[in-house]
Amino acid sequence: MSKPSPEVYEQGKGMDAHNQAMREIRSRKEASYDPHEPTRVWLDEDNTPDGVKTSLTIILNTGGCRWARAGGCTMCGYVAESVDGGSVSHDALMDQIDVCLAHEADNADEQADLIKIYTSGSFLDEREVGAESRRAIADTFADRDRIVVESLPDFVDREKIGDFTQHGLDTDVAIGLETATDRVRHDCVNKYFDFADFEDACAEAAAADAEADGDVEAGIKAYLLMKPPFLTESEAAEDMISSVERCADVEGCHTVSMNPCNVQRYTMVDDLYFEDGYRPPWLWSVAHVLEETADADAIVVSDPVGHGSDRGPHNCTECDDRVQKAIKDFDLRQDPSVFEQVSCECKLTWETVIERERSFNQPLTR
Ligand code: SF4
Ligand SMILES: [Zn+2]
Questions:
Q1: Is 71 a pocket residue for ligand 1 (Cβ < 6 Å)?
Q2: Are 52 and 31 in contact (CB under 8 A)?
Q3: What is the pLDDT of residues 160-190, one digit of tens each?
Protein backbone atom coordinates (compact mmCIF):
# COMPACT_ATOMS: atom_id res chain seq x y z
CA MET A 1 0.00 0.00 0.00
CA SER A 2 1.53 3.31 -1.04
CA LYS A 3 1.68 6.26 1.34
CA PRO A 4 0.17 9.58 0.19
CA SER A 5 2.80 11.59 -1.68
CA PRO A 6 2.59 14.26 -4.37
CA GLU A 7 3.24 13.60 -8.05
CA VAL A 8 5.28 16.13 -10.02
CA TYR A 9 2.17 17.93 -11.31
CA GLU A 10 0.86 18.46 -7.79
CA GLN A 11 4.18 19.43 -6.21
CA GLY A 12 4.64 22.97 -4.90
CA LYS A 13 0.90 23.77 -5.08
CA GLY A 14 -1.31 24.62 -2.12
CA MET A 15 0.02 25.32 1.32
CA ASP A 16 2.98 23.14 2.42
CA ALA A 17 1.88 23.01 6.05
CA HIS A 18 -1.71 22.01 5.14
CA ASN A 19 -0.47 19.37 2.70
CA GLN A 20 1.91 17.94 5.24
CA ALA A 21 -0.80 17.77 7.92
CA MET A 22 -3.33 16.21 5.54
CA ARG A 23 -0.83 13.60 4.30
CA GLU A 24 -0.23 12.56 7.88
CA ILE A 25 -3.98 12.43 8.67
CA ARG A 26 -4.82 10.46 5.53
CA SER A 27 -2.04 7.94 6.13
CA ARG A 28 -3.88 6.80 9.31
CA LYS A 29 -6.38 5.04 7.10
CA GLU A 30 -5.62 2.26 4.70
CA ALA A 31 -8.10 1.08 2.13
CA SER A 32 -8.17 -0.62 -1.21
CA TYR A 33 -10.91 -1.08 -3.75
CA ASP A 34 -11.77 -3.47 -6.54
CA PRO A 35 -10.98 -1.62 -9.81
CA HIS A 36 -13.84 -3.48 -11.55
CA GLU A 37 -16.52 -2.08 -9.21
CA PRO A 38 -17.67 1.54 -9.10
CA THR A 39 -17.26 3.28 -5.76
CA ARG A 40 -21.04 3.96 -5.65
CA VAL A 41 -24.04 4.18 -7.97
CA TRP A 42 -27.59 5.40 -7.31
CA LEU A 43 -30.79 6.71 -8.93
CA ASP A 44 -32.33 10.11 -8.08
CA GLU A 45 -33.85 13.21 -9.67
CA ASP A 46 -32.22 16.55 -10.37
CA ASN A 47 -33.00 20.12 -11.39
CA THR A 48 -31.26 20.92 -14.70
CA PRO A 49 -31.52 23.91 -17.06
CA ASP A 50 -34.18 21.81 -18.92
CA GLY A 51 -36.25 21.08 -15.83
CA VAL A 52 -36.35 18.17 -13.39
CA LYS A 53 -34.91 14.92 -14.75
CA THR A 54 -34.38 11.37 -13.50
CA SER A 55 -30.69 10.77 -12.90
CA LEU A 56 -28.17 7.96 -12.60
CA THR A 57 -25.19 9.02 -10.49
CA ILE A 58 -21.97 7.07 -10.81
CA ILE A 59 -18.87 7.41 -8.68
CA LEU A 60 -16.16 5.79 -10.74
CA ASN A 61 -13.11 4.38 -9.06
CA THR A 62 -10.29 5.83 -11.15
CA GLY A 63 -7.31 5.42 -8.89
CA GLY A 64 -8.08 8.38 -6.77
CA CYS A 65 -7.57 12.07 -6.53
CA ARG A 66 -3.98 13.09 -7.14
CA TRP A 67 -4.47 16.21 -5.11
CA ALA A 68 -5.48 14.07 -2.12
CA ARG A 69 -2.23 12.16 -2.47
CA ALA A 70 -0.34 15.43 -2.26
CA GLY A 71 -2.22 16.14 0.99
CA GLY A 72 -5.21 17.91 -0.48
CA CYS A 73 -8.34 19.58 0.76
CA THR A 74 -8.85 20.05 4.49
CA MET A 75 -12.44 18.74 4.57
CA CYS A 76 -12.19 15.85 2.10
CA GLY A 77 -12.14 12.37 3.59
CA TYR A 78 -11.22 10.79 0.34
CA VAL A 79 -8.74 8.02 1.07
CA ALA A 80 -5.58 8.83 -0.79
CA GLU A 81 -4.26 5.37 -1.54
CA SER A 82 -7.27 3.80 -3.25
CA VAL A 83 -5.67 1.73 -6.00
CA ASP A 84 -2.01 0.88 -5.71
CA GLY A 85 -0.08 2.44 -8.57
CA GLY A 86 -2.89 4.95 -8.92
CA SER A 87 -4.50 4.05 -12.22
CA VAL A 88 -7.34 1.88 -13.48
CA SER A 89 -7.24 0.23 -16.92
CA HIS A 90 -9.67 0.96 -19.72
CA ASP A 91 -11.23 -2.51 -19.43
CA ALA A 92 -11.74 -2.17 -15.68
CA LEU A 93 -13.36 1.26 -16.11
CA MET A 94 -15.75 -0.18 -18.69
CA ASP A 95 -16.56 -3.05 -16.28
CA GLN A 96 -17.53 -0.40 -13.73
CA ILE A 97 -19.85 1.23 -16.28
CA ASP A 98 -21.47 -2.17 -16.95
CA VAL A 99 -22.13 -2.63 -13.22
CA CYS A 100 -23.85 0.80 -13.20
CA LEU A 101 -26.01 -0.04 -16.23
CA ALA A 102 -27.05 -3.30 -14.57
CA HIS A 103 -27.95 -1.39 -11.39
CA GLU A 104 -30.12 0.96 -13.42
CA ALA A 105 -31.83 -1.88 -15.30
CA ASP A 106 -32.60 -3.65 -12.01
CA ASN A 107 -33.95 -0.60 -10.16
CA ALA A 108 -35.66 1.69 -12.68
CA ASP A 109 -38.47 1.22 -15.18
CA GLU A 110 -36.89 3.53 -17.70
CA GLN A 111 -33.44 4.77 -18.56
CA ALA A 112 -32.41 7.91 -16.67
CA ASP A 113 -32.31 11.08 -18.81
CA LEU A 114 -29.39 12.49 -16.87
CA ILE A 115 -26.06 10.73 -16.21
CA LYS A 116 -23.69 12.12 -13.59
CA ILE A 117 -20.16 10.77 -13.35
CA TYR A 118 -17.90 11.66 -10.46
CA THR A 119 -14.50 10.21 -9.80
CA SER A 120 -13.42 11.81 -6.51
CA GLY A 121 -10.89 13.49 -8.73
CA SER A 122 -11.06 14.72 -12.31
CA PHE A 123 -12.84 12.77 -15.03
CA LEU A 124 -11.13 15.02 -17.60
CA ASP A 125 -7.62 14.38 -16.20
CA GLU A 126 -6.25 11.87 -18.72
CA ARG A 127 -4.05 10.28 -16.06
CA GLU A 128 -7.34 9.16 -14.43
CA VAL A 129 -9.59 8.48 -17.42
CA GLY A 130 -7.74 8.19 -20.74
CA ALA A 131 -9.12 9.58 -24.00
CA GLU A 132 -10.13 6.05 -25.14
CA SER A 133 -12.23 5.46 -22.02
CA ARG A 134 -13.70 8.95 -22.11
CA ARG A 135 -14.88 8.46 -25.69
CA ALA A 136 -16.21 4.96 -25.00
CA ILE A 137 -18.21 6.28 -22.04
CA ALA A 138 -19.57 9.10 -24.24
CA ASP A 139 -20.66 6.42 -26.78
CA THR A 140 -22.31 4.33 -24.06
CA PHE A 141 -24.53 7.21 -22.93
CA ALA A 142 -25.09 8.77 -26.37
CA ASP A 143 -28.85 8.01 -26.19
CA ARG A 144 -29.39 10.02 -22.97
CA ASP A 145 -30.29 13.75 -22.76
CA ARG A 146 -27.61 15.14 -20.55
CA ILE A 147 -24.33 14.19 -18.87
CA VAL A 148 -22.41 15.74 -15.99
CA VAL A 149 -18.74 14.95 -15.44
CA GLU A 150 -16.57 16.23 -12.62
CA SER A 151 -13.19 17.89 -13.09
CA LEU A 152 -10.77 20.34 -11.59
CA PRO A 153 -10.61 23.39 -13.88
CA ASP A 154 -7.07 22.77 -15.19
CA PHE A 155 -8.24 19.78 -17.24
CA VAL A 156 -11.31 21.36 -18.89
CA ASP A 157 -11.01 22.07 -22.60
CA ARG A 158 -13.44 22.41 -25.47
CA GLU A 159 -12.25 19.28 -27.34
CA LYS A 160 -12.87 16.97 -24.37
CA ILE A 161 -16.35 18.46 -23.90
CA GLY A 162 -16.83 18.01 -27.66
CA ASP A 163 -16.46 14.20 -27.21
CA PHE A 164 -19.88 14.33 -25.51
CA THR A 165 -21.67 17.16 -27.34
CA GLN A 166 -20.93 15.53 -30.71
CA HIS A 167 -23.38 12.78 -29.69
CA GLY A 168 -26.06 15.40 -29.07
CA LEU A 169 -25.60 15.13 -25.29
CA ASP A 170 -26.04 18.33 -23.30
CA THR A 171 -22.87 18.39 -21.23
CA ASP A 172 -22.02 19.96 -17.90
CA VAL A 173 -18.68 19.93 -16.19
CA ALA A 174 -18.98 20.02 -12.40
CA ILE A 175 -16.12 21.94 -10.83
CA GLY A 176 -15.37 21.87 -7.10
CA LEU A 177 -14.63 25.57 -6.93
CA GLU A 178 -15.61 25.65 -3.20
CA THR A 179 -15.57 29.46 -3.05
CA ALA A 180 -14.99 32.40 -5.36
CA THR A 181 -12.65 33.95 -2.78
CA ASP A 182 -9.07 32.90 -3.59
CA ARG A 183 -7.83 33.51 -0.05
CA VAL A 184 -10.50 31.21 1.46
CA ARG A 185 -9.92 28.52 -1.20
CA HIS A 186 -6.16 28.56 -0.63
CA ASP A 187 -5.93 29.04 3.13
CA CYS A 188 -9.04 27.30 4.48
CA VAL A 189 -9.71 24.58 1.88
CA ASN A 190 -6.14 24.10 0.60
CA LYS A 191 -7.18 23.95 -3.05
CA TYR A 192 -4.47 25.15 -5.35
CA PHE A 193 -6.24 26.89 -8.23
CA ASP A 194 -7.58 30.43 -8.60
CA PHE A 195 -10.97 31.86 -9.52
CA ALA A 196 -9.33 32.95 -12.80
CA ASP A 197 -8.75 29.23 -13.64
CA PHE A 198 -12.45 28.61 -13.05
CA GLU A 199 -13.30 31.51 -15.38
CA ASP A 200 -10.99 30.00 -18.04
CA ALA A 201 -12.77 26.64 -17.71
CA CYS A 202 -16.14 28.39 -18.10
CA ALA A 203 -14.82 30.08 -21.25
CA GLU A 204 -13.83 26.64 -22.64
CA ALA A 205 -17.33 25.34 -21.90
CA ALA A 206 -18.86 28.41 -23.55
CA ALA A 207 -16.67 27.76 -26.63
CA ALA A 208 -17.75 24.09 -26.70
CA ASP A 209 -21.35 25.31 -26.42
CA ALA A 210 -20.88 27.64 -29.40
CA GLU A 211 -19.24 24.85 -31.45
CA ALA A 212 -21.96 22.28 -30.65
CA ASP A 213 -24.81 21.61 -33.09
CA GLY A 214 -28.09 23.47 -32.84
CA ASP A 215 -29.65 23.25 -29.42
CA VAL A 216 -26.97 21.03 -27.81
CA GLU A 217 -25.65 22.79 -24.71
CA ALA A 218 -22.38 22.76 -22.77
CA GLY A 219 -21.81 24.55 -19.47
CA ILE A 220 -20.32 24.54 -16.02
CA LYS A 221 -21.90 23.57 -12.70
CA ALA A 222 -19.95 25.14 -9.83
CA TYR A 223 -19.80 23.32 -6.47
CA LEU A 224 -19.34 25.58 -3.48
CA LEU A 225 -18.44 24.59 0.07
CA MET A 226 -20.18 26.42 2.88
CA LYS A 227 -18.05 26.89 5.98
CA PRO A 228 -14.61 25.43 5.48
CA PRO A 229 -12.56 25.37 8.72
CA PHE A 230 -11.30 28.65 10.24
CA LEU A 231 -14.33 30.78 9.19
CA THR A 232 -17.02 31.97 11.57
CA GLU A 233 -20.67 31.33 10.76
CA SER A 234 -21.18 34.88 9.46
CA GLU A 235 -17.94 34.88 7.44
CA ALA A 236 -18.99 31.56 5.90
CA ALA A 237 -22.44 32.88 4.96
CA GLU A 238 -21.04 36.10 3.47
CA ASP A 239 -18.42 34.13 1.54
CA MET A 240 -21.21 31.98 0.03
CA ILE A 241 -23.44 34.91 -0.89
CA SER A 242 -20.64 36.66 -2.78
CA SER A 243 -19.46 33.35 -4.31
CA VAL A 244 -22.91 32.45 -5.66
CA GLU A 245 -23.22 35.92 -7.16
CA ARG A 246 -19.75 35.90 -8.72
CA CYS A 247 -20.24 32.42 -10.22
CA ALA A 248 -23.66 33.29 -11.63
CA ASP A 249 -22.08 36.28 -13.40
CA VAL A 250 -19.53 34.15 -15.29
CA GLU A 251 -20.61 33.24 -18.82
CA GLY A 252 -20.77 29.47 -19.22
CA CYS A 253 -21.71 28.80 -15.57
CA HIS A 254 -25.44 28.02 -15.38
CA THR A 255 -25.79 26.19 -12.05
CA VAL A 256 -24.33 26.68 -8.59
CA SER A 257 -24.55 23.85 -6.04
CA MET A 258 -23.81 25.28 -2.61
CA ASN A 259 -23.15 22.52 -0.10
CA PRO A 260 -22.53 22.74 3.62
CA CYS A 261 -19.36 21.15 4.95
CA ASN A 262 -19.73 17.96 6.98
CA VAL A 263 -17.13 16.35 9.23
CA GLN A 264 -15.54 13.45 7.40
CA ARG A 265 -13.13 11.05 9.07
CA TYR A 266 -9.41 11.40 8.45
CA THR A 267 -9.53 15.11 7.66
CA MET A 268 -8.21 18.29 9.23
CA VAL A 269 -11.84 19.30 9.84
CA ASP A 270 -12.27 16.08 11.87
CA ASP A 271 -9.19 16.85 13.97
CA LEU A 272 -10.52 20.36 14.66
CA TYR A 273 -14.00 19.03 15.44
CA PHE A 274 -12.52 16.55 17.90
CA GLU A 275 -10.73 19.44 19.69
CA ASP A 276 -13.97 21.52 19.82
CA GLY A 277 -12.64 23.85 17.13
CA TYR A 278 -15.23 23.29 14.42
CA ARG A 279 -19.00 23.19 14.10
CA PRO A 280 -20.65 22.41 10.74
CA PRO A 281 -22.87 25.24 9.45
CA TRP A 282 -26.40 25.85 10.65
CA LEU A 283 -29.15 24.90 8.20
CA TRP A 284 -30.46 28.41 8.85
CA SER A 285 -27.28 29.69 7.19
CA VAL A 286 -27.96 27.55 4.13
CA ALA A 287 -31.52 28.89 3.93
CA HIS A 288 -30.24 32.44 4.42
CA VAL A 289 -27.77 32.20 1.52
CA LEU A 290 -30.40 30.65 -0.78
CA GLU A 291 -32.84 33.43 0.09
CA GLU A 292 -30.26 36.18 -0.41
CA THR A 293 -29.16 34.85 -3.80
CA ALA A 294 -32.56 33.82 -5.16
CA ASP A 295 -32.38 36.41 -7.95
CA ALA A 296 -28.87 35.37 -9.12
CA ASP A 297 -28.68 34.58 -12.82
CA ALA A 298 -28.18 30.82 -12.35
CA ILE A 299 -29.93 27.81 -10.86
CA VAL A 300 -28.84 27.70 -7.22
CA VAL A 301 -29.29 24.45 -5.30
CA SER A 302 -28.03 22.86 -2.10
CA ASP A 303 -27.92 19.26 -0.92
CA PRO A 304 -27.00 19.17 2.77
CA VAL A 305 -25.44 15.76 3.47
CA GLY A 306 -25.81 14.35 6.99
CA HIS A 307 -28.28 17.07 7.98
CA GLY A 308 -29.41 17.08 11.58
CA SER A 309 -26.39 15.18 12.90
CA ASP A 310 -23.55 16.64 14.97
CA ARG A 311 -21.10 15.97 12.16
CA GLY A 312 -23.37 17.41 9.47
CA PRO A 313 -25.09 20.77 8.97
CA HIS A 314 -27.66 21.14 11.73
CA ASN A 315 -29.91 23.42 13.77
CA CYS A 316 -31.41 22.32 17.11
CA THR A 317 -32.50 18.78 16.02
CA GLU A 318 -36.21 19.76 16.47
CA CYS A 319 -36.42 21.65 13.16
CA ASP A 320 -33.67 20.02 11.07
CA ASP A 321 -35.95 17.83 8.96
CA ARG A 322 -38.34 20.72 8.27
CA VAL A 323 -35.59 23.11 7.18
CA GLN A 324 -33.95 20.40 5.10
CA LYS A 325 -37.27 19.78 3.35
CA ALA A 326 -37.63 23.50 2.60
CA ILE A 327 -34.12 23.49 1.09
CA LYS A 328 -35.00 20.52 -1.13
CA ASP A 329 -38.23 22.28 -2.17
CA PHE A 330 -36.21 25.35 -3.04
CA ASP A 331 -33.86 23.21 -5.17
CA LEU A 332 -36.72 22.07 -7.37
CA ARG A 333 -38.80 25.29 -7.45
CA GLN A 334 -36.25 28.11 -6.92
CA ASP A 335 -38.87 29.93 -4.85
CA PRO A 336 -37.48 31.59 -1.68
CA SER A 337 -40.95 31.81 -0.09
CA VAL A 338 -40.52 28.13 0.97
CA PHE A 339 -38.38 29.44 3.83
CA GLU A 340 -41.14 31.69 5.19
CA GLN A 341 -43.07 28.55 6.13
CA VAL A 342 -40.44 27.19 8.55
CA SER A 343 -39.66 28.63 11.94
CA CYS A 344 -38.16 27.45 15.22
CA GLU A 345 -37.02 28.95 18.51
CA CYS A 346 -33.42 28.12 17.66
CA LYS A 347 -33.42 30.74 14.92
CA LEU A 348 -32.75 33.32 17.63
CA THR A 349 -29.66 31.37 18.73
CA TRP A 350 -28.46 31.26 15.12
CA GLU A 351 -28.97 35.02 14.80
CA THR A 352 -26.91 35.52 17.94
CA VAL A 353 -24.13 33.32 16.54
CA ILE A 354 -24.13 35.30 13.30
CA GLU A 355 -23.86 38.51 15.30
CA ARG A 356 -21.45 37.48 18.08
CA GLU A 357 -19.20 34.67 16.87
CA ARG A 358 -15.61 35.78 16.20
CA SER A 359 -12.65 33.71 15.05
CA PHE A 360 -11.23 33.61 18.58
CA ASN A 361 -14.41 32.29 20.23
CA GLN A 362 -15.69 29.86 17.63
CA PRO A 363 -17.63 27.69 17.64
CA LEU A 364 -19.94 29.67 19.89
CA THR A 365 -22.49 26.81 20.05
CA ARG A 366 -22.58 23.13 19.27
S1 SF4 B 1 -12.08 17.69 -2.51
FE2 SF4 B 1 -11.65 16.87 -4.56
S3 SF4 B 1 -9.66 17.84 -5.11
FE4 SF4 B 1 -9.87 18.04 -2.89
S5 SF4 B 1 -8.79 16.25 -2.07
FE6 SF4 B 1 -10.97 15.71 -2.21
S7 SF4 B 1 -11.22 14.67 -4.16
FE8 SF4 B 1 -9.25 15.79 -4.22
ZN1 LIG C 1 -34.65 24.55 15.67
A1: no
A2: no
A3: 999 999 999 999 999 999 999 999 999 999 9
With beta carbons less than 8 A apart as the criterion, state whether 32 and 1 touch.
Answer: yes
Q: Residue 231: helix, strand or coil by DSSP?
A: coil
Look at residue 17 and give its three-state secondary structure. Answer: helix
User: Exposed, middle or buried by CB within 10 Å (0-12, 13-18, 19+), for 355?
Assistant: exposed
Q: Which distant-in-sequence residues (6+ apart) come within 8 Å of 291 by Cβ?
A: 336, 339
| Distance from C-alpha of 157 to C-alpha of 116, rounded to nearest angstrom | 18
Please tell me the distance between residue 180's alpha carbon and the centre of ligand 2 in angstroms: 30
Rounded Cα distance between 323 and 353, Å, is: 18
CA–CA distance, 135 with 138 (Å, rounded to integer): 5
The alpha carbons of the chain give a radius of gyration, in whole angstroms, of 20
**What is the phi-psi region of residue 317: left when phi exceeds 0, alpha when psi lies from -120 to 50, beta otherwise?**
left
Q: What is the DSSP annotation of 95-122?
A: HHHHHHHHHHHHH-SS--SEEEEE-SS-
* CA pair distance 110, 330, nearest whole angstrom: 26
Return the ligand 1 atom nearest residue 120 CA. Answer: 7
Ligand 1 contacts CB of residue 72 (under 6 A): yes
Pocket test for ligand 1, best of 7, 22, 67, 82 (most atoms within 8 A of CB): 67
121 lines ligand 1 (CB under 6 A): yes
pTM comes to: 0.90
pLDDT digits (tens, 9 = 90+) for 3-27: 677 777 777 777 788 998 888 888 8
Q: Which ligand is nearest to the CA of 10?
A: 1
DSSP annotation of 3: P
Q: Ligand 1 in contact with 141 (CB < 6 A)? A: no
Question: What is the distance between the alpha carbons of residues 221 and 243, in angstroms, rounded to a whole number?
Answer: 13
